[in-house]
Amino acid sequence: MVTLTPEEVAKQKAETVPTDVELFGSSLYSGVASGTTIQKFTCMASIRVPDDDVDEDDDIDESDRAPVLVVAVVDKSGSMAGAKLDSLKDTLLFIIKELGKKDKLGIVEYDTKVTATLKVTQMNESGKQQAIEVVNRLKSGSATNLSGGLMEGLRLIPSEIGNETVVSTLLLTDGLANHGIRTSKGIVSMVRKAQSEGVGRCTVNTFGFGSDHDAAMLKEIAQAAEGMYYYIENEDSIASAFADCIGGLLSVRAQGVELEIQTADGIALGEVFTGKPLTVVTEGRKVRIALGDLQNGEERDVTFEVQLPSIGSAVDTQNIAGFKLSFFDMVKNEMRDLDSSLIIARPAEATDEHKSPNLLVDRNCNRVKGANALAEALKLAEKNQLAQAREILQRVISEVKASPSSGEDFCVTMLQELQTSLSGMQDRQQYHNFGKYQMNNMVHVMANQRCAASTPSYSPQQVSSAPPPSFSFAQQQQCMPQMSAMSAMPPAMGSPMPPMAPQMSAKPMFATKNRARMQKKCAKR
Q1: What is the reported pTM?
Q2: What 8-state DSSP symbol labels residue 53?
Q3: Number of alpha helices (DSSP H) and beta strands (DSSP E) in the chain
Q4: Of 138, 185, 341, 347, which residue is most buried, by most CB within 10 angstroms?
Q5: CA neighbor of 436 nearest in space, from 448, 424, 422
Q6: How many CB atoms lie within 10 A of CB 215?
Q7: Least confident of 30-34, 133-137, 286-290, 490-494
Protein backbone atom coordinates (compact mmCIF):
# COMPACT_ATOMS: atom_id res chain seq x y z
CA MET A 1 0.00 0.00 0.00
CA VAL A 2 1.39 3.39 -1.07
CA THR A 3 1.16 6.19 1.50
CA LEU A 4 0.65 9.63 -0.01
CA THR A 5 2.06 12.81 1.47
CA PRO A 6 -0.39 15.58 2.53
CA GLU A 7 0.59 17.54 -0.60
CA GLU A 8 -0.08 14.53 -2.87
CA VAL A 9 -3.48 13.96 -1.23
CA ALA A 10 -4.44 17.58 -1.87
CA LYS A 11 -3.31 17.38 -5.51
CA GLN A 12 -5.22 14.13 -6.09
CA LYS A 13 -8.43 15.58 -4.63
CA ALA A 14 -8.06 18.77 -6.69
CA GLU A 15 -8.29 16.67 -9.86
CA THR A 16 -11.67 15.19 -8.92
CA VAL A 17 -15.09 16.81 -8.82
CA PRO A 18 -17.06 15.87 -5.68
CA THR A 19 -20.34 14.07 -6.37
CA ASP A 20 -20.84 12.44 -2.99
CA VAL A 21 -20.48 13.29 0.68
CA GLU A 22 -16.82 13.93 1.53
CA LEU A 23 -14.95 13.40 4.82
CA PHE A 24 -11.39 14.61 5.27
CA GLY A 25 -8.94 15.87 7.85
CA SER A 26 -6.55 18.81 7.85
CA SER A 27 -4.29 20.70 10.23
CA LEU A 28 -3.19 24.29 10.60
CA TYR A 29 0.31 23.29 9.42
CA SER A 30 1.03 20.42 7.03
CA GLY A 31 4.36 19.59 8.63
CA VAL A 32 6.17 19.96 11.94
CA ALA A 33 9.87 19.33 12.61
CA SER A 34 10.43 15.93 14.17
CA GLY A 35 12.14 17.38 17.25
CA THR A 36 9.35 19.87 18.01
CA THR A 37 6.64 19.41 20.63
CA ILE A 38 3.39 21.40 20.34
CA GLN A 39 1.02 21.36 23.31
CA LYS A 40 -1.97 22.64 21.32
CA PHE A 41 -1.71 21.64 17.68
CA THR A 42 -4.83 22.67 15.75
CA CYS A 43 -6.53 20.02 13.61
CA MET A 44 -9.90 19.74 11.90
CA ALA A 45 -12.36 17.12 10.65
CA SER A 46 -14.44 18.33 7.69
CA ILE A 47 -17.57 17.16 5.90
CA ARG A 48 -18.74 18.40 2.51
CA VAL A 49 -22.08 17.72 0.83
CA PRO A 50 -22.15 18.60 -2.88
CA ASP A 51 -24.81 21.04 -4.05
CA ASP A 52 -27.37 19.88 -6.62
CA ASP A 53 -26.41 20.18 -10.28
CA VAL A 54 -29.75 21.74 -11.34
CA ASP A 55 -29.78 25.32 -12.60
CA GLU A 56 -30.89 27.71 -9.88
CA ASP A 57 -33.82 28.93 -11.99
CA ASP A 58 -35.14 25.40 -12.58
CA ASP A 59 -37.25 23.25 -10.25
CA ILE A 60 -35.85 20.20 -8.49
CA ASP A 61 -37.55 16.99 -9.57
CA GLU A 62 -39.56 15.71 -6.61
CA SER A 63 -38.28 12.19 -7.28
CA ASP A 64 -34.70 13.40 -6.69
CA ARG A 65 -35.26 14.41 -3.07
CA ALA A 66 -36.61 12.98 0.16
CA PRO A 67 -40.25 13.58 1.15
CA VAL A 68 -40.84 16.22 3.82
CA LEU A 69 -43.39 16.54 6.60
CA VAL A 70 -43.84 20.11 7.82
CA VAL A 71 -45.98 21.32 10.72
CA ALA A 72 -46.49 25.10 10.75
CA VAL A 73 -47.25 26.43 14.25
CA VAL A 74 -48.40 30.02 13.75
CA ASP A 75 -49.08 32.83 16.20
CA LYS A 76 -52.46 34.46 15.53
CA SER A 77 -52.53 36.65 18.65
CA GLY A 78 -53.98 40.15 18.44
CA SER A 79 -50.62 41.74 17.67
CA MET A 80 -50.44 39.76 14.41
CA ALA A 81 -53.47 41.57 12.96
CA GLY A 82 -53.10 43.47 9.70
CA ALA A 83 -50.04 43.36 7.45
CA LYS A 84 -48.24 40.71 9.54
CA LEU A 85 -51.06 38.21 9.24
CA ASP A 86 -51.58 38.98 5.54
CA SER A 87 -47.88 38.33 4.85
CA LEU A 88 -47.97 35.14 6.93
CA LYS A 89 -50.96 33.84 4.97
CA ASP A 90 -49.23 34.60 1.67
CA THR A 91 -46.16 32.73 2.92
CA LEU A 92 -48.17 29.67 3.96
CA LEU A 93 -49.81 29.64 0.52
CA PHE A 94 -46.34 29.70 -1.06
CA ILE A 95 -45.25 26.74 1.09
CA ILE A 96 -48.36 24.81 0.07
CA LYS A 97 -47.59 25.49 -3.61
CA GLU A 98 -43.98 24.29 -3.29
CA LEU A 99 -44.74 21.03 -1.47
CA GLY A 100 -45.10 18.00 -3.71
CA LYS A 101 -47.47 15.05 -3.83
CA LYS A 102 -45.31 12.93 -1.54
CA ASP A 103 -44.98 15.72 1.06
CA LYS A 104 -47.25 16.35 4.04
CA LEU A 105 -48.34 19.49 5.91
CA GLY A 106 -50.02 20.21 9.22
CA ILE A 107 -51.08 23.61 10.61
CA VAL A 108 -51.53 24.61 14.25
CA GLU A 109 -52.90 28.04 15.17
CA TYR A 110 -52.48 29.51 18.62
CA ASP A 111 -53.45 32.56 20.61
CA THR A 112 -54.86 31.87 24.08
CA LYS A 113 -56.40 28.73 22.60
CA VAL A 114 -54.58 26.14 20.51
CA THR A 115 -56.20 24.52 17.47
CA ALA A 116 -54.85 22.02 14.97
CA THR A 117 -56.75 23.40 11.99
CA LEU A 118 -55.06 21.05 9.54
CA LYS A 119 -54.07 17.55 10.60
CA VAL A 120 -51.03 16.13 8.82
CA THR A 121 -52.28 15.95 5.22
CA GLN A 122 -50.78 14.64 1.98
CA MET A 123 -50.12 17.54 -0.38
CA ASN A 124 -51.90 16.09 -3.40
CA GLU A 125 -54.45 18.23 -5.22
CA SER A 126 -57.25 17.71 -2.70
CA GLY A 127 -54.89 18.09 0.26
CA LYS A 128 -53.56 21.38 -1.05
CA GLN A 129 -57.07 22.71 -1.53
CA GLN A 130 -57.93 21.78 2.04
CA ALA A 131 -54.78 23.53 3.30
CA ILE A 132 -55.54 26.67 1.26
CA GLU A 133 -59.01 26.89 2.80
CA VAL A 134 -57.50 26.63 6.30
CA VAL A 135 -55.02 29.43 5.59
CA ASN A 136 -57.67 31.71 4.10
CA ARG A 137 -59.75 31.37 7.30
CA LEU A 138 -56.83 32.39 9.55
CA LYS A 139 -57.78 35.39 11.75
CA SER A 140 -56.08 37.18 14.63
CA GLY A 141 -57.15 36.47 18.21
CA SER A 142 -55.96 37.23 21.75
CA ALA A 143 -52.87 36.22 23.85
CA THR A 144 -49.78 34.08 23.07
CA ASN A 145 -49.82 30.45 24.25
CA LEU A 146 -46.54 29.57 22.54
CA SER A 147 -45.84 26.43 24.58
CA GLY A 148 -49.30 25.04 23.92
CA GLY A 149 -49.02 25.68 20.19
CA LEU A 150 -45.59 24.06 19.97
CA MET A 151 -46.65 21.01 21.97
CA GLU A 152 -49.70 20.50 19.75
CA GLY A 153 -47.46 20.76 16.69
CA LEU A 154 -45.19 18.04 18.06
CA ARG A 155 -48.17 15.82 18.80
CA LEU A 156 -49.31 16.04 15.17
CA ILE A 157 -46.20 14.24 13.96
CA PRO A 158 -46.81 10.48 13.55
CA SER A 159 -44.65 8.40 15.89
CA GLU A 160 -43.98 5.78 13.19
CA ILE A 161 -42.33 8.24 10.80
CA GLY A 162 -39.15 6.76 9.28
CA ASN A 163 -35.65 8.07 8.54
CA GLU A 164 -36.52 8.41 4.87
CA THR A 165 -38.70 11.48 5.61
CA VAL A 166 -37.46 14.94 6.60
CA VAL A 167 -39.61 16.23 9.47
CA SER A 168 -39.67 19.75 10.86
CA THR A 169 -41.88 22.04 12.92
CA LEU A 170 -41.86 25.74 12.00
CA LEU A 171 -42.75 27.96 14.98
CA LEU A 172 -43.61 31.63 14.36
CA THR A 173 -44.31 34.30 16.98
CA ASP A 174 -44.20 38.09 17.17
CA GLY A 175 -44.39 38.46 20.94
CA LEU A 176 -43.61 37.09 24.35
CA ALA A 177 -45.11 33.87 25.70
CA ASN A 178 -47.79 35.17 28.10
CA HIS A 179 -50.00 32.10 28.44
CA GLY A 180 -49.05 28.52 29.36
CA ILE A 181 -45.34 27.83 30.00
CA ARG A 182 -43.55 31.18 29.74
CA THR A 183 -39.84 30.52 30.33
CA SER A 184 -37.11 29.27 27.99
CA LYS A 185 -36.08 26.60 30.47
CA GLY A 186 -39.65 25.36 30.84
CA ILE A 187 -40.38 25.19 27.11
CA VAL A 188 -37.03 23.57 26.24
CA SER A 189 -37.63 21.00 29.00
CA MET A 190 -41.10 20.33 27.56
CA VAL A 191 -39.67 19.74 24.07
CA ARG A 192 -36.87 17.46 25.28
CA LYS A 193 -39.22 15.41 27.45
CA ALA A 194 -41.70 14.97 24.61
CA GLN A 195 -39.05 13.94 22.09
CA SER A 196 -37.39 11.55 24.57
CA GLU A 197 -40.77 9.84 24.84
CA GLY A 198 -41.11 9.53 21.07
CA VAL A 199 -43.43 12.52 20.57
CA GLY A 200 -42.50 14.96 17.81
CA ARG A 201 -39.35 13.43 16.34
CA CYS A 202 -38.33 16.45 14.30
CA THR A 203 -36.24 19.57 14.08
CA VAL A 204 -37.83 22.82 15.29
CA ASN A 205 -37.09 25.99 13.34
CA THR A 206 -38.17 29.19 15.07
CA PHE A 207 -39.13 32.54 13.55
CA GLY A 208 -39.23 35.70 15.67
CA PHE A 209 -41.02 38.66 14.13
CA GLY A 210 -40.30 42.31 15.02
CA SER A 211 -38.77 43.77 18.17
CA ASP A 212 -41.06 42.31 20.85
CA HIS A 213 -40.27 38.59 20.78
CA ASP A 214 -37.89 36.71 23.08
CA ALA A 215 -34.89 36.04 20.81
CA ALA A 216 -32.97 34.05 23.41
CA MET A 217 -35.96 31.77 24.02
CA LEU A 218 -36.50 31.05 20.33
CA LYS A 219 -32.78 30.40 19.80
CA GLU A 220 -32.70 27.97 22.74
CA ILE A 221 -35.79 26.12 21.48
CA ALA A 222 -34.20 25.79 18.04
CA GLN A 223 -30.89 24.63 19.52
CA ALA A 224 -32.61 21.99 21.64
CA ALA A 225 -34.32 20.51 18.57
CA GLU A 226 -31.52 20.86 15.99
CA GLY A 227 -33.23 23.73 14.16
CA MET A 228 -32.37 27.35 13.36
CA TYR A 229 -33.58 30.69 14.74
CA TYR A 230 -34.66 33.31 12.19
CA TYR A 231 -34.99 37.00 13.00
CA ILE A 232 -37.71 38.61 10.84
CA GLU A 233 -37.29 42.38 10.82
CA ASN A 234 -40.48 43.35 8.94
CA GLU A 235 -43.49 42.00 7.02
CA ASP A 236 -41.52 41.77 3.79
CA SER A 237 -39.03 39.37 5.40
CA ILE A 238 -41.55 36.74 6.55
CA ALA A 239 -41.77 35.07 3.14
CA SER A 240 -38.01 35.22 2.56
CA ALA A 241 -37.23 33.61 5.93
CA PHE A 242 -39.69 30.76 5.43
CA ALA A 243 -38.48 30.26 1.84
CA ASP A 244 -34.90 29.97 3.09
CA CYS A 245 -35.94 27.35 5.63
CA ILE A 246 -38.11 25.35 3.21
CA GLY A 247 -35.31 25.44 0.65
CA GLY A 248 -33.08 23.74 3.20
CA LEU A 249 -35.66 21.14 4.22
CA LEU A 250 -36.29 20.21 0.59
CA SER A 251 -32.57 19.47 0.11
CA VAL A 252 -31.65 17.33 3.14
CA ARG A 253 -29.07 14.76 2.06
CA ALA A 254 -28.19 13.05 5.37
CA GLN A 255 -29.91 12.51 8.72
CA GLY A 256 -28.66 11.13 12.03
CA VAL A 257 -25.13 12.29 11.25
CA GLU A 258 -22.47 11.22 13.77
CA LEU A 259 -18.76 11.96 13.63
CA GLU A 260 -16.11 10.05 15.57
CA ILE A 261 -12.65 11.46 16.16
CA GLN A 262 -9.94 9.14 17.47
CA THR A 263 -6.31 10.17 17.87
CA ALA A 264 -3.45 7.87 16.99
CA ASP A 265 -1.33 6.11 19.60
CA GLY A 266 0.83 8.58 21.49
CA ILE A 267 -1.32 11.57 20.47
CA ALA A 268 -3.45 13.07 23.26
CA LEU A 269 -6.78 14.63 22.26
CA GLY A 270 -7.34 18.08 23.74
CA GLU A 271 -10.30 20.46 23.41
CA VAL A 272 -12.92 19.81 20.71
CA PHE A 273 -14.60 23.01 19.56
CA THR A 274 -18.27 22.22 18.94
CA GLY A 275 -21.60 23.17 20.43
CA LYS A 276 -23.17 19.92 19.26
CA PRO A 277 -23.84 17.01 21.68
CA LEU A 278 -20.49 15.35 22.38
CA THR A 279 -19.85 11.96 24.00
CA VAL A 280 -16.42 11.06 25.36
CA VAL A 281 -15.85 7.44 24.31
CA THR A 282 -12.25 7.16 25.54
CA GLU A 283 -10.84 9.95 27.70
CA GLY A 284 -8.08 11.79 25.86
CA ARG A 285 -8.45 9.65 22.72
CA LYS A 286 -11.91 9.31 21.24
CA VAL A 287 -15.14 11.35 21.05
CA ARG A 288 -18.43 11.03 19.19
CA ILE A 289 -20.36 14.13 18.03
CA ALA A 290 -24.04 14.19 16.97
CA LEU A 291 -24.27 16.63 14.04
CA GLY A 292 -27.98 16.34 13.20
CA ASP A 293 -28.73 16.55 9.48
CA LEU A 294 -26.86 17.84 6.43
CA GLN A 295 -28.31 19.58 3.39
CA ASN A 296 -27.04 19.81 -0.17
CA GLY A 297 -24.25 22.36 -0.47
CA GLU A 298 -23.49 22.42 3.26
CA GLU A 299 -20.22 21.97 5.11
CA ARG A 300 -19.32 21.04 8.66
CA ASP A 301 -15.91 21.67 10.18
CA VAL A 302 -14.99 20.51 13.68
CA THR A 303 -11.73 21.98 14.95
CA PHE A 304 -9.85 20.30 17.79
CA GLU A 305 -6.47 20.36 19.48
CA VAL A 306 -3.99 17.56 20.08
CA GLN A 307 -0.76 17.36 22.01
CA LEU A 308 1.85 16.72 19.34
CA PRO A 309 5.01 15.09 20.78
CA SER A 310 8.48 15.18 19.33
CA ILE A 311 9.61 11.95 17.66
CA GLY A 312 13.01 10.27 17.59
CA SER A 313 13.82 10.74 13.93
CA ALA A 314 12.33 12.34 10.83
CA VAL A 315 9.61 10.46 8.93
CA ASP A 316 7.72 11.26 5.75
CA THR A 317 4.31 11.10 7.44
CA GLN A 318 2.83 10.68 10.90
CA ASN A 319 -0.74 9.61 11.54
CA ILE A 320 -2.47 12.09 13.86
CA ALA A 321 -6.13 11.03 13.95
CA GLY A 322 -8.79 8.90 12.33
CA PHE A 323 -12.36 9.92 11.51
CA LYS A 324 -15.56 7.94 11.01
CA LEU A 325 -18.80 9.46 9.70
CA SER A 326 -22.10 7.58 10.06
CA PHE A 327 -25.37 8.83 8.54
CA PHE A 328 -28.60 7.86 6.80
CA ASP A 329 -28.26 8.76 3.13
CA MET A 330 -31.58 10.23 1.94
CA VAL A 331 -30.67 9.69 -1.73
CA LYS A 332 -29.48 6.09 -1.44
CA ASN A 333 -32.02 5.35 1.32
CA GLU A 334 -29.50 3.47 3.46
CA MET A 335 -27.14 3.87 6.42
CA ARG A 336 -23.59 4.66 5.39
CA ASP A 337 -20.14 4.93 6.97
CA LEU A 338 -17.20 6.96 5.70
CA ASP A 339 -13.64 6.82 7.01
CA SER A 340 -10.74 9.22 6.70
CA SER A 341 -7.55 10.16 8.51
CA LEU A 342 -5.26 13.08 9.19
CA ILE A 343 -1.53 12.80 8.52
CA ILE A 344 1.24 15.39 8.64
CA ALA A 345 4.88 15.45 7.58
CA ARG A 346 7.59 15.20 10.29
CA PRO A 347 10.84 16.23 8.56
CA ALA A 348 14.09 17.03 10.32
CA GLU A 349 13.46 20.69 9.48
CA ALA A 350 10.09 22.17 8.49
CA THR A 351 10.03 23.85 5.08
CA ASP A 352 8.33 27.16 4.27
CA GLU A 353 5.45 25.16 2.78
CA HIS A 354 5.04 23.24 6.04
CA LYS A 355 5.02 26.51 7.98
CA SER A 356 2.39 28.12 5.74
CA PRO A 357 -0.98 28.08 7.56
CA ASN A 358 -3.92 26.21 6.05
CA LEU A 359 -6.48 28.93 5.28
CA LEU A 360 -9.44 26.56 5.59
CA VAL A 361 -8.43 25.64 9.14
CA ASP A 362 -7.56 29.24 9.99
CA ARG A 363 -10.90 30.62 8.83
CA ASN A 364 -12.77 28.02 10.87
CA CYS A 365 -10.72 28.99 13.91
CA ASN A 366 -11.94 32.52 13.21
CA ARG A 367 -15.51 31.25 12.93
CA VAL A 368 -15.29 29.56 16.33
CA LYS A 369 -13.71 32.68 17.85
CA GLY A 370 -16.45 34.85 16.40
CA ALA A 371 -19.28 32.63 17.62
CA ASN A 372 -17.79 32.40 21.13
CA ALA A 373 -17.28 36.17 21.26
CA LEU A 374 -20.89 36.81 20.22
CA ALA A 375 -22.16 34.38 22.87
CA GLU A 376 -20.07 36.05 25.58
CA ALA A 377 -21.07 39.54 24.43
CA LEU A 378 -24.75 38.57 24.54
CA LYS A 379 -24.45 37.45 28.15
CA LEU A 380 -22.83 40.75 29.14
CA ALA A 381 -25.33 42.84 27.16
CA GLU A 382 -28.24 41.13 28.91
CA LYS A 383 -26.66 42.31 32.20
CA ASN A 384 -26.50 45.86 30.81
CA GLN A 385 -22.69 45.66 30.54
CA LEU A 386 -22.58 47.02 26.99
CA ALA A 387 -19.11 48.55 27.23
CA GLN A 388 -17.57 45.21 28.20
CA ALA A 389 -19.58 43.45 25.48
CA ARG A 390 -18.30 45.90 22.87
CA GLU A 391 -14.72 45.33 24.02
CA ILE A 392 -15.07 41.60 23.43
CA LEU A 393 -16.33 42.10 19.87
CA GLN A 394 -13.71 44.75 19.12
CA ARG A 395 -11.01 42.35 20.31
CA VAL A 396 -12.17 39.46 18.13
CA ILE A 397 -12.61 41.77 15.13
CA SER A 398 -8.97 42.83 15.52
CA GLU A 399 -7.84 39.20 15.83
CA VAL A 400 -9.71 38.12 12.70
CA LYS A 401 -8.37 41.09 10.72
CA ALA A 402 -4.83 40.10 11.71
CA SER A 403 -5.29 36.42 10.79
CA PRO A 404 -3.92 34.80 7.59
CA SER A 405 -7.43 34.13 6.25
CA SER A 406 -8.77 37.65 6.87
CA GLY A 407 -9.05 38.40 3.16
CA GLU A 408 -11.16 35.34 2.34
CA ASP A 409 -14.76 36.07 1.39
CA PHE A 410 -16.04 34.17 4.40
CA CYS A 411 -13.99 36.21 6.87
CA VAL A 412 -14.89 39.48 5.14
CA THR A 413 -18.59 38.64 5.48
CA MET A 414 -18.12 37.52 9.08
CA LEU A 415 -16.36 40.80 9.90
CA GLN A 416 -19.31 42.70 8.41
CA GLU A 417 -21.68 40.76 10.65
CA LEU A 418 -19.51 41.32 13.74
CA GLN A 419 -19.35 45.04 12.93
CA THR A 420 -23.16 45.08 12.64
CA SER A 421 -23.37 43.38 16.04
CA LEU A 422 -21.03 46.02 17.46
CA SER A 423 -23.24 48.77 16.04
CA GLY A 424 -26.26 47.09 17.59
CA MET A 425 -24.80 47.64 21.06
CA GLN A 426 -24.26 51.40 20.84
CA ASP A 427 -26.78 51.88 23.63
CA ARG A 428 -29.65 50.11 25.34
CA GLN A 429 -32.20 51.28 22.78
CA GLN A 430 -30.13 50.01 19.86
CA TYR A 431 -29.60 46.69 21.61
CA HIS A 432 -33.27 46.12 22.46
CA ASN A 433 -34.57 47.32 19.08
CA PHE A 434 -32.14 45.42 16.88
CA GLY A 435 -28.87 44.22 18.39
CA LYS A 436 -30.02 41.28 20.45
CA TYR A 437 -32.02 39.82 17.56
CA GLN A 438 -29.22 40.07 15.01
CA MET A 439 -26.67 38.72 17.52
CA ASN A 440 -28.80 35.74 18.58
CA ASN A 441 -29.36 34.87 14.94
CA MET A 442 -25.72 35.25 13.95
CA VAL A 443 -24.21 33.30 16.85
CA HIS A 444 -26.53 30.42 15.92
CA VAL A 445 -25.61 30.63 12.22
CA MET A 446 -21.86 30.71 12.87
CA ALA A 447 -21.87 27.93 15.46
CA ASN A 448 -24.01 25.60 13.32
CA GLN A 449 -22.62 26.48 9.87
CA ARG A 450 -26.14 26.78 8.54
CA CYS A 451 -27.88 29.67 6.84
CA ALA A 452 -30.85 31.32 8.56
CA ALA A 453 -31.39 34.34 6.33
CA SER A 454 -34.54 36.44 6.41
CA THR A 455 -33.22 38.69 3.64
CA PRO A 456 -32.78 37.41 0.07
CA SER A 457 -29.49 35.76 -0.83
CA TYR A 458 -29.46 37.68 -4.11
CA SER A 459 -29.66 41.28 -5.24
CA PRO A 460 -33.23 42.31 -6.19
CA GLN A 461 -31.71 43.76 -9.39
CA GLN A 462 -30.01 40.45 -10.16
CA VAL A 463 -32.64 37.84 -9.44
CA SER A 464 -31.18 35.47 -12.00
CA SER A 465 -27.64 35.51 -10.61
CA ALA A 466 -26.47 32.25 -9.06
CA PRO A 467 -24.61 32.07 -5.75
CA PRO A 468 -20.89 31.31 -5.86
CA PRO A 469 -20.18 27.55 -6.10
CA SER A 470 -19.13 25.54 -3.09
CA PHE A 471 -15.62 24.10 -3.29
CA SER A 472 -14.24 20.71 -2.44
CA PHE A 473 -11.53 20.11 0.14
CA ALA A 474 -8.52 20.52 -2.14
CA GLN A 475 -9.93 23.51 -4.01
CA GLN A 476 -10.51 25.31 -0.72
CA GLN A 477 -7.01 24.49 0.53
CA GLN A 478 -5.38 25.74 -2.66
CA CYS A 479 -7.32 29.03 -2.87
CA MET A 480 -5.20 32.04 -2.03
CA PRO A 481 -6.71 34.92 -0.05
CA GLN A 482 -8.47 37.50 -2.17
CA MET A 483 -8.20 40.77 -0.32
CA SER A 484 -11.51 42.59 -0.18
CA ALA A 485 -11.98 46.14 0.96
CA MET A 486 -14.43 46.79 3.73
CA SER A 487 -15.13 49.68 6.03
CA ALA A 488 -14.54 49.21 9.74
CA MET A 489 -16.21 52.48 10.62
CA PRO A 490 -19.29 52.09 12.87
CA PRO A 491 -22.47 54.14 12.25
CA ALA A 492 -22.75 57.54 13.86
CA MET A 493 -22.98 57.08 17.59
CA GLY A 494 -25.72 59.66 17.98
CA SER A 495 -28.18 58.05 15.60
CA PRO A 496 -31.48 57.25 17.36
CA MET A 497 -32.60 54.73 14.74
CA PRO A 498 -31.57 51.06 14.89
CA PRO A 499 -29.07 50.11 12.16
CA MET A 500 -30.31 48.37 9.07
CA ALA A 501 -29.34 44.78 8.43
CA PRO A 502 -25.93 44.58 6.72
CA GLN A 503 -26.00 45.18 2.98
CA MET A 504 -24.20 42.10 1.75
CA SER A 505 -22.06 42.28 -1.37
CA ALA A 506 -22.23 38.49 -1.51
CA LYS A 507 -24.66 35.78 -0.44
CA PRO A 508 -25.46 35.32 3.28
CA MET A 509 -23.22 33.05 5.31
CA PHE A 510 -23.65 29.35 4.43
CA ALA A 511 -26.30 29.98 1.76
CA THR A 512 -26.96 27.05 -0.58
CA LYS A 513 -28.35 26.81 -4.08
CA ASN A 514 -31.76 25.46 -3.08
CA ARG A 515 -32.25 28.12 -0.39
CA ALA A 516 -31.49 30.81 -2.98
CA ARG A 517 -33.76 29.04 -5.47
CA MET A 518 -36.70 29.10 -3.04
CA GLN A 519 -36.16 32.76 -2.11
CA LYS A 520 -36.11 33.75 -5.78
CA LYS A 521 -39.30 31.82 -6.51
CA CYS A 522 -40.94 33.41 -3.51
CA ALA A 523 -39.89 36.90 -4.64
CA LYS A 524 -41.17 36.31 -8.18
CA ARG A 525 -44.49 35.15 -6.79
Answers
A1: 0.85
A2: -
A3: 15, 15
A4: 138
A5: 424
A6: 21
A7: 490-494
